[in-house]
Amino acid sequence: QVHLVESGGGLVQPGGSLRLSCAASGSIFSINAMGWYRQAPGKQRESVATITRGGMTNYADSVKGRFTISRDNAKNTVYLQMNSLKPEDTAVYYCNALISVRPGNLYSDWGQGTQVTVSS
Prior knowledge:
It contains no helices and eleven strands. It is mainly β. It is 0% helix and 58% strand. The radius of gyration is 14 Å and the shape is elongated.
């Protein structure tokens, strides 16, 4: 079984920074795209940032210039550096990965989520 475990969430003041990490473990053949999603109360889960195995990134317009996604393929880990945080960034952040446990077998896996709260 493959597990995704997030860490790094917490409480931060507006303008502050947090760095989220998500490590995949288990029997993994390969990990293709990875990404961060968030869900605020009363809102749908939305894509924040994604990154391909080769390092191509995509960001939501609301976080461009403030957030940076990166990955370490050797460690099966994806990161989200969040700078200049705003109250509207408050949400539960979820890690997602498109995983192959063997060639030709892909599935999407999710972490348990980590709370990010931006408040004075």
